[in-house]
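tokens incoming
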């Protein structure tokens, strides 16, 4: 049976739509958000439509952040810069997503350990939350190239792997994990974690009430 156009249009307009803006146009980052959104869609309500679009904005941090604090700041500043950019364009978004990859340096048993991490910050324009991918340790020679010589991680990993453009494909994550974990995988996990207080709001309200 054919559904009349008027009824079909009313059904479409009755769906809850969410526009998710991402502070990057790089393929692994944008696809990671799209994959994360696809896995979370069920928690936004039956029939919810989630749209994702990327925009080029600056993070305000070094090309390769070298601490957890800098990674978090870069992710948050991307989301905030994106919000300001869309306000100037008079474009409405339900969520602003900033993602940032880089290094975190720690000392363990007197030895420096350098880890690659991916961070995400998600804001609805009023409140925001962070999520992290987990970590994978860098070889000392690669860490030294980035931290001591100031080489951008993207260039350094190309040099170490003998390839070009790894950042837009498997990323350093893929090289170091023999493709068991890709750069896109790491950002996807960070985004899902950062969105948790929004799609699992009831649990976070309960936790807040218990702590008060």
């Amino acid at each position: 049976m054919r559904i009349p156009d008027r009824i079909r249009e009313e059904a479409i307009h009755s769906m809850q739509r969410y526009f998710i803006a991402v502070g990057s146009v790089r393929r692994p980052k944008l696809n990671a958000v799209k994959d994360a959104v696809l896995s979370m869609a069920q928690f936004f309500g039956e029939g919810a439509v989630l749209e994702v679009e990327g925009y080029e904005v600056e993070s305000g941090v070094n090309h390769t952040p070298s601490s957890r604090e800098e990674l978090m700041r870069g992710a948050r500043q991307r989301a905030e810069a994106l919000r300001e950019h869309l306000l100037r364009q008079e474009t409405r978004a339900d969520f602003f997503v900033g993602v940032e990859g880089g290094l975190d340096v720690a000392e363990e048993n007197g030895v420096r350990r350098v880890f690659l991490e991916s961070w995400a910050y998600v804001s609805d324009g009023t409140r925001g939350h962070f999520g992290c991918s987990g970590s994978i340790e860098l070889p000392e020679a690669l860490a030294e190239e980035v931290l001591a010589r100031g080489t951008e991680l993207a260039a350094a990993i190309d040099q170490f792997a003998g390839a070009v453009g790894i950042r837009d494909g498997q990323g350093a994550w893929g090289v170091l994990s023999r493709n068991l974990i890709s750069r896109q995988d790491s950002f996807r996990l960070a985004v899902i974690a950062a969105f948790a207080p929004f799609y699992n709001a009831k649990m976070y309200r309960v936790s807040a009430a218990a702590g008060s």
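note: Residues 105 and 181 are 21 Å apart (CA to CA).
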